[in-house]
Design a protein that fits this description.
Blueprint (H helix, E strand, L loop, with lengths): L1 E4 L19 E9 L22 E6 L3 E7 L19 E4 L4 E6 L7 E6 L3 E12 L2 E8 L7 E7 L6 E2 L2 E2 L5 E9 L2 E12 L11 E4 H17 L2
Parallel strand pairs: 7-15
Antiparallel strand pairs: 1-8, 2-3, 2-14, 3-4, 4-5, 5-6, 6-7, 8-9, 9-10, 10-13, 11-12, 13-14
Length: 230
């Protein structure tokens, strides 16, 4: 089944979800590599992988906002309130305005906070299912993949937030696992735990505000300057 989805959020003073989780809550994800023939499970991670390290991340969901927090070292998780530091690729999501604010520092050329509206994505929804942390997750495949990878998302309707590590997805549930297949390796990100969130969450203020279209033009200028120096 192929769909194009736009998200409708339900607001409330702490929504109670399956297995007793109530907003705000956080989902911690671990990233790594798995052999192509192995099952999708953290215990199958390859300890020594030949490619660049993949960041772990956490997704914090409150009533009307969410925050995607990438980190390499465990101490980087201690930020409180969340959003108070500048970290490239961290993402703040406002459900009401359907806006995303991503922190970026392209080629160390300056700190920016990029504002963008939700982007509609198209998926094939499959019946394949797996269990992750007790949740039934279903496979979704992005349409028109052209980057040489085969990408799969595993989402659960039991947590009705259309989010992944990349922000808004349009899927009918929270993504608890992500797979990137390549002929030579298989990158995966899997939810390790879900727990109540006590840290305060604020909208990031560090970084020069810039719109998505303006930022794309800026990226081209910066990229040309960088490559011209090579």
């Amino acid at each position: 089944m192929r769909i194009i989805l736009m998200l409708i959020f339900v607001f409330g003073g702490g929504i109670l979800y399956a297995q007793g989780y109530k907003t705000p809550f956080s989902v911690r994800y671990l990233s790594g590599y798995i052999e192509p023939q192995d099952s999708l499970h953290i215990s199958r991670f390859i300890k020594k992988h030949p490619f660049h390290p993949m960041p772990n991340y956490e997704l914090v969901v409150a009533d009307t906002v969410a925050y995607i927090h990438l980190y390499i070292k465990e101490r980087e998780r201690n930020e409180n309130p969340l959003g108070s530091s500048f970290r490239p690729l961290n993402l703040y999501i406002d459900f009401k305005s359907q806006k995303e604010f991503r922190q970026s520092d392209p080629w160390n050329s300056g700190r920016y906070q990029v504002e963008a509206s939700y982007q509609t994505q198209q998926f094939d929804l499959l019946k394949d299912s797996i269990q992750i942390l007790g949740y039934t997750c279903y496979k979704a495949v992005p349409v028109n993949q052209t980057n040489g990878f085969h990408t799969f998302f595993w989402y659960t309707p039991a947590l009705p937030h259309s989010l992944s590590m990349y922000g808004f997805t349009g899927l009918p549930g929270l993504v608890l696992a992500y797979e990137n297949w390549h002929p030579k390796f298989r990158q995966v990100t899997i939810a390790e735990r879900i727990e109540p969130e006590k840290r305060k969450l604020i909208k990031p203020k560090k970084g020069t505000p810039i719109g998505a279209l303006e930022y794309e033009k800026l990226l081209i200028e910066i990229r040309n300057r960088v490559f011209n120096r090579l």
